[in-house]
Write a structure and sequence with these properties.
Length: 330
Amino acid sequence: MGLIFSFFTVVALGVIVFIGVKAADMRYLFGVIIPYAAFFAFLIGIIYRILQWARVPVPFRIPTTAGQGKSFPWIKQNTIDNPFTSIGVIIRMTLEVLLFRSLFRNTRAELRDGPKLSYGSTKWLWLGGLAFHYAFLIILIRHLRFFLEPVPLPIEIVEALDGFFQVGAPVLYITNLIFLGAVTFLFLRRVVIPQVRYISLAADYFPLFLIGAIGVTGVLMRYFLKTDVVGIKELTMGLITFSPVIPQTIGTIFYIHLFLVSALFAYFPMSKLMHMAGVFLSPTRNLANNNRAVMHVNPWNYPVKAHTYDEYEDEFRNVMKEAGLPVEKE
Ligand code: HEM
């Protein structure tokens, strides 16, 4: 259900632009107003969510302990999986963000004949996820050429490396293959593995279809339905200098690409894609496990008005004696 709904939502987004641009010439809406609105929704939404998370008190350290914590000197500590210092935390976080280290340790549980429960290593999700994110990153870096004039050398270098194999004209970017391949893999994994399909919702399929459709429209635009890239650069430079222009030479496929990107940006803050920022704010990942060495005081502790037994007895001693109750002080 979530799958069909997400698929047709993305198709509908494409059809809306097609009709809007082709039949109603709403280029300004799709080329200027919606991208601006989406960008600001993205910015404000992300700031809002980060502030929401940052406001949640974290009084105690709740580190995930995927390795031996600091203990006696003769017990070997796992300094990365169970860091004791901030440096250790930074190393763990860096490896997590750049290499998806915890996903690398992902295991699969299976019931074999016997019945016997067995755990196996499973690296495909890690590999697919890593390929997807890095291809995405490189594509975004390459896209900076539309927003910078003159195009900085590092971006030219990334472009040259990405097109290294020089297949055909325009040169085939290797990241385009990896990107579309990885999105397809991540989607098939959800539908083919019954357990994963069971827990998959529209919120899982929709971003996959949307990002897949952005990739497909980008590839169509670059290799098949050629559009006026010079005109597009005029438009993008107009957007970032707040003096928008709409060159009439740009094909509809570009507006579809841009609208899907706008949809992704607007949707981003309210979706699971916020893991991009959330990973840094995750208390199980960003705190050193020094619970036993350092006293952590709950920051919102207030002085509690206590009434000790001594005070109680002082107050009621006479009455207690009259009732025949034992007292500590006469
Ligand atoms: C989430 C953001 C985006 C993604 C994932 C994405 C993805 C892609 C992909 C995979 C391609 C195929 C060719 C290539 O890799 O260069 C492409 C091409 C293209 N994209 Fe994007 N895109 C994004 C945002 C944008 C934005 C914001 C613009 C402009 C405002 C844009 C304009 C273009 C253009 C003009 C092409 C054709 C490039 C050429 O012919 O060489 N894209 N995009």
